[in-house]
Amino acid sequence: MTQVLNASPAASSGTPHVDEPSRYDGILLVGFGGPEGPADVMPFLRNVTKGRGIPDERLTEVAEHYHHYNGVSPINTHNRELKAALQKELASRGIDLPVFWGNRNWAPYLHEAIADADARGATSLLATVTSAFSSYSSCRQYREDLWEALRHADAVDRVTIDKVRQYFDHPGFVEPFVDGVDAALRSLESDGLDLTRDIEVLFVTHSIPSADAQNSGPRDLDLGAGGAYEAQHRAIADVVMRAVSSRRSGCNEADAPAEWKLVYQSRSGAPSTPWLEPDVNDAIAELASSRRAVVVVPIGFVSDHMEVMWDLDNEARKTADAHGLAMIRVATPGTHPAFVSGLADLIEERIDGTPPTGRPALTALGPWFDVCRPGCCASARAGARCAVSGLKP
After folding, report:
1. pLDDT score at 163
2. What is the largest CA-CA distance in the chain?
3. Is 314 helix (H, G, I), strand (E, B) or coil?
4. Where along the chain is Fe-coproporphyrin III bound (predicted)?
5. Are residues 52 and 77 in the same domain?
């Protein structure tokens, strides 16, 4: 009996890790989307906040962040580059599959990408989402949107969509951050700063409502008050710092070369609603009395979003400058060769039906599930809606 909506035969039973080979006709790269000109900004923001009752007056304030950069988000350009790089990497491995690209909030939309694939005879798709962690907004909402896109494209009866696992602890996602933190610390050292005394590393991710954080991950996993979302980020920050230390000392068990903490950015919503804290700006301000420099690591982001450019490159840097702290912002993975190769690995493991024991994962939390468990990452506000690549509901 089918337990998963519009899944491939191998995934339809709802097994946590699909260890049967699967045939796919195409890869669907799933993005968030972003405006590509001033006229796009307000319609885009209305798409992002649809159903949340946020007035245009508030959206106009956010729109100024985009207009600061001529109304253009970098995210679509990054996804075009990632699509091309992934297509090239797959071809180099002898995987002859087209890569389609669709966004949640702006053109090209998911339903357009699915309709294009359907028209070209690609009716068994494997989705790769440009988000590595588990939460409503970073996983389940994409799965819900894929189901709605199937309906919008009138393709429910013809097209199946599986999704690669959340890849927060895949080496391909982690390595670019190790490179970036290592380079940042070496740069600050060359300026005469002491790693243990003068520098703090802040791993930054998007804040989410505390209730959604508690709901993140399967309901039968007890991962603490922050759920899978916080646990995954903390685990990977620790992995990154240990890997940097290992590079410097040659010892796999070496302690982290500098102090670090997990902080958050881009909080929104009513002030009365609890969100994950502390905010990156508050954290930077608190360091002023004890540190001389801060390394900001956008660990929650696959590529540069407007939140990275505005909240970190603009606001966080101003905060650091105001408190006399040097600041280096580490790059997001983007099209780093290790990241592109890692995405291809994730695709190959589903094509080949690689058992979980053969899948790379750098934390005890992984490898994460191919098919999300019942109610996984359901919205605390909206509940669980129909979604692909997960057991009902």
Report:
1. 98
2. 65
3. helix
4. 73, 142
5. yes
Per-residue tokens: 265: 């950015």
Same domain membership, residue 184 and residue 319: yes
Residue 77 has pLDDT above 60, yes or no: yes
At residue 113, does pLDDT exceed 60?
Answer: yes
Nearest to 372 by CA among 386, 354, 355, 352: 386
Q: Do 313 and 350 belong to one domain? A: no
User: CA 379, CA 120: separation in Å to the nearest integer?
Assistant: 35
Q: Does 92 share its domain with 106?
A: yes
Q: In CATH, what number is assigned to the domain containing residue 180?
A: 3.40.50.1400
Cα 72 to Cα 156: distance, rounded to the nearest angstrom = 34
The residue among 75, 348, 381, 74 whose CA lies nearest residue 209 is 381
Pairing of strands 26-31, 124-129: parallel
**For residue 123, is it within any domain?**
yes
Q: 50-64, 128-142, 293-307: which has the minimum mean pLDDT?
A: 50-64
Q: 253: pLDDT confidence band, cut at 50, 70 and 90?
A: low
Would the annotation count 142 as a binding residue?
Answer: yes
75-92 helix and 337-352 helix, angle to the nearest 10 degrees: 60
**Residues 216-232, mean pLDDT to the nearest whole number:** 93
283-303 mean pLDDT:
97
How far is the C-alpha of 385 from the C-alpha of 219, rounded, in Å? Answer: 16
User: Can you give the residue range of the structural domain that contains 269?
Assistant: 171-329
Does the annotation place 286 within a ligand binding site? no
The answer to whether residue 61 is domain-embedded is yes
365, part of any domain: no
Rounded CA-CA distance 103/101 in Å is 7
Per the DSSP assignment, residues forming a β-bridge with 129 are 30
Residue 211 confidence (pLDDT) above 80: yes
Number of other CB atoms surrounding residue 297 within 10 Å: 27
pLDDT > 60? residue 1: no
**Do residues 187 and 211 share a domain?**
yes
| Whole-angstrom distance, CA of residue 362 vs CA of residue 242 | 11
- pTM score: 0.96
Consult the annotation and say whether 73 binds a ligand.
Answer: yes
Using the 8-state DSSP alphabet, how is residue 177 labeled?
H
Domain assignment present for 75: yes
